[in-house]
Amino acid sequence: MTVRVVLADDQPLIRAGLRVLIADAADIEVVGEAGTGAEAVRLAREVVPDVVLMDLRMPGTDGIQATRIITAVGGPTRVLVLTTFDDDDHVHAALRAGASGFLVKDMALDDILGAVRVVAGGDALIAPAVTRRLIAEFTRRPEVAVRTRALPGVTDREREVLTLVGRGLSNGEIAAELVISAATAKAHVARLFAKLGARDRVHLVIAAHEAGLVRPPP
């Protein structure tokens, strides 16, 4: 199956570079390009891509607003944020808006293609090193610190699993940590998706931190 992608970035050179990269991938196809958030929203509605690669800083409707609009309809299109991260303090807002993960613009090209495939397949993708930095930044923010998220209906075992997801562990690592099968770990994660209304693993990580199950590093 070919993954259909829309490129949303206000820098033509960035879009051109991504387009050339994707042209070499037999299973990924660029079906549209947008220079503004509003154009990204329009294209998402018109061509219904599998993935929108979304820059955050664009004129007019920015990437956060565009992400919120695209994901609010509950359709199949997923958003992967493009960011410089080091100087972008809006990444956590993009995740809250419904993004399924984010890429740093200087990532290796193969990693970008891999991320597109993972997100198109229904999972979330954040590089482990970047996850640690994101969560540390996210949980230090005052608006997060004053909140404690309730976990209605979540069992003790599911809380354990959610804690490990919040620490960035994969299903296999969770299984090893709890001495359960990988299939059982996957089932627990799936139930957490349903109980917490999480779109993907990224939002389970956020939920774990909002619930106080994982604390930021000192």
Description:
α8 packs across α10, α8 (156-166) crosses α11 (201-210) and α9 crosses α10. The relative contact order is 0.11. With 218 residues, this protein is α/β, with parallel strands linked by helices. It is built from 11 helices and 5 strands, in the order βαβαβαβαβααααααα. It has helices spanning 12-23, 37-47, 63-72, 91-96, 109-120, 128-140, 142-145, 156-166, 171-178, 182-196, 201-210, and strands at 3-8, 28-34, 51-55, 78-83, 102-104. It is globular and about 50 Å long. The termini are far apart. The protein has a 5-stranded parallel β-sheet with strand order 2-1-3-4-5, sandwiched between helices.
Output the radius of gyration: 17 Å
Shape: globular
> Uncertain regions: pLDDT < 50 for 5+ in a row?
none
Distance between the termini: 45 Å
Q: What is the helix/strand order?
A: EHEHEHEHEHHHHHHH
In short:
With 218 residues, this protein is α/β, with parallel strands linked by helices.
Features:
218 residues, alpha/beta, five-stranded parallel β-sheet, 12% strand, globular
Blueprint (SSEs and pairs):
Blueprint: E1 3-8, H1 12-23, E2 28-34, H2 37-47, E3 51-55, H3 63-72, E4 78-83, H4 91-96, E5 102-104, H5 109-120, H6 128-140, H7 142-145, H8 156-166, H9 171-178, H10 182-196, H11 201-210
Parallel strand pairs: 1-2, 1-3, 3-4, 4-5
Helix pairs in contact: 2-3, 8-10, 8-11, 9-10
